[in-house]
Design a protein that fits this description.
Helices cover 41% and strands 22% of the residues. By secondary structure, it is an alpha/beta fold. The protein folds into 2 domains: 142 residues, 3-Layer(aba) Sandwich (D-Maltodextrin-Binding Protein, domain 2); 169 residues, 3-Layer(aba) Sandwich (D-Maltodextrin-Binding Protein, domain 2), CATH 3.40.190.10.
């Protein structure tokens, strides 16, 4: 798999681009986001068309879509378009679509989307993921559809002896439904992937339903790579500004980077279009990070205040995971 990962995202852009861009007056081109009410569409996308127009690339429009799998298909169909995708879902897709993956280019990394696992069990917050993994065969999982579903499938694929053993899986409409299925005792564990951002009502819903978030951290996730880039990071998100959030004001879990993709220049048939695409790639790669930050100051503070869990703390989390997993497996008939 390491070899597959290293080649999959040969989604690399040539570092030495010598062509210069001229302003384009083509028809509107899409920047595919996800749901119309989601963070990609509302917070992350709006600054991008402005930055691109200032650099001589007008006509890009933030466009709602079906999420990462849909965005991959749309960018393949129209290489000049852009799409927001979860890195783990892109990696999962690329494993099964090796040749098609060569037609895509990863051009920008944004914030990190958390993998959220929730449960009613009061002691889950202390034993972490190991207890769930140890009992995976008998637990009922409610998995949000779309990118969250694709993330869970990827996690199962890279961890066949852990969460890969889960078989009692219900796919539900969205994260809210996954939370409610757990709260109503129709599922033991809920799973979804989302930004913990100021407008995300699901984080508050977790508090209202008195559910526990379980840090989704194990060795298999940490080891996953795409072109030597970690698919997952372990971060703590500072939620102290949220009056509805109690405790120490933070949540820790694994997260996957949100990235922007577009078509590789080689996927565009006409020479002028391919040259314009190279110039576009060069501009986006060279643009300052501030050009791609949301305009919501609270969102910016949330992104900047998230921290990578340090080595010693991560080591303790992995030790707790391993101990809990072994204990759960030993008690499972």
């Amino acid at each position: 798999m390491v070899r597959a990962h290293s080649v999959i995202l040969a989604l690399a852009v040539s570092a030495a681009l010598t062509c210069s861009a001229t302003a384009q007056t083509q028809k509107a081109k899409a920047i595919y986001t996800a749901s119309a009410a989601g963070a990609y569409q509302i917070s992350f996308c709006p600054p991008i068309p402005v930055a691109m127009e200032s650099a001589g690339f007008p006509g890009y429009v933030c466009t709602p879509s079906g999420g990462t799998p849909d965005n991959i298909a749309k960018v393949l169909a129209d290489p000049r378009s852009l799409g927001f995708v979860q890195l783990d879902v892109l990696a999962r897709w690329a494993l099964d679509n090796f040749e098609a993956a060569k037609k895509l280019v990863l051009i920008r990394t944004l914030a990190c989307e958390g993998l959220w696992m929730v449960t009613r069990e009061k002691d889950m917050a202390t034993v972490y993921l190991g207890q769930i993994v140890g009992h995976a065969r008998r637990l009922q999982f409610a998995i949000a559809d779309g990118g969250s579903r694709a993330s869970f499938e990827f996690v199962q694929r890279i961890d066949p002896d852990g969460l890969g053993r889960a078989s009692n899986i219900e796919i539900v409409d969205n994260a809210t439904t996954a939370i409610e299925r757990v709260a109503s005792e129709h599922a033991d564990v809920g799973f979804f992937v989302q930004f913990v951002e100021p407008t995300n009502s699901n984080i508050r819903l977790l508090q209202e339903r008195k559910l526990r978030t379980v840090p989704v951290v194990n060795p298999e996730l940490i080891a996953a790579r795409v072109s030597n880039m970690p698919v997952y990071q372990v971060q703590s998100f500072n939620l102290s500004e949220w009056s509805a959030f109690g405790g120490n004001g933070s949540l820790t879990t694994t997260c996957t980077p949100a990235v922007i993709i577009t078509g590789a220049p080689e996927a565009i048939a006409d020479l002028e279009g391919a040259d314009n695409q190279r110039a576009l790639l060069s501009m986006i790669k060279a643009a300052p990070d501030t050009a791609f930050l949301p305009r919501d100051n609270r969102m910016v503070r949330l992104i900047s205040s998230s921290r990578t869990v340090p080595g010693p703390e991560l080591k303790d989390m992995l030790a707790a995971y391993d101990a809990a997993k072994r204990k759960a497996e030993a008690s499972t008939p």
